[in-house]
């Protein structure tokens, strides 16, 4: 579910380009993105259930204290976050912010640098401003296809987890990504060498490869919004000069090729993590914390189920 809304929010950058191609003013473009992002957040707020175990335990503790108070009792049960003083420390905030940069933040920066080349590339085919905007539609479609392609894999893991709790390893989420992650560098290298203009190939060439980039980037995790937006802002400073630095005849081909090489470096860790994930998690403090939270949640569910069964048994007697 979180991936669904990540795709929604990711598509806002392309929606802006499509809308901006029609020639509206800057205020109108930003307004469209704000509305799109607000809708995503509202859907997230009202449709996605809470899954963090510490928050669920806090809620359960409050419910039990409230029930005990109705019976005139004082129950000394507290959730993990309720007993922590100064929950938001500067060190904790910086740690949370830093994690996305170590995951996929730089992958998104590749995409934003690549998007900056659209006007230059399609301008060779005499695309007008609105036509360049429409050229972003394949990427939007690719985002949707990437999301749809993951549904069978997600349902499979949910089914396995329901049938046998704890049997689904975290690495199983990477199985389809093992294949789709390579579409980003493939799309970038293909886009690079079909950017030579009408004398070399049809404009459908770079447009097709841009859709592969959309599928590759759309298949990655979406929980890195801060990293994505910050790196995109930094990339906007040098993306233009980057695509103007190289001399003819490969002014546009070389920059995208460099991005493709970086894309390969970003994709390489995926199969490595899939194969050696269990060993890495054993030495990861963060992974151990997640495992402990998961175990706590499972115990809570077990206690709740046993309590429900006991209550049902007493009522039947």
From TrEMBL:
An annotated GO cellular component: plasma membrane
Keyword field: Membrane, Transmembrane, Transmembrane helix
Membrane-crossing segments per the record: 96-115, 135-155, 176-196, 255-274
Membrane topology label: Multi-pass membrane protein
Superkingdom classification of source: Eukaryota
GO MF annotations, alphabetized: transmembrane transporter activity
Region (Disordered): 297-317
Keyword Transmembrane: yes
Comp. bias (Basic and acidic residues): 302-317
Protein name: Uncharacterized protein
Source taxonomy: Eukaryota, Fungi, Dikarya, Basidiomycota, Wallemiomycotina
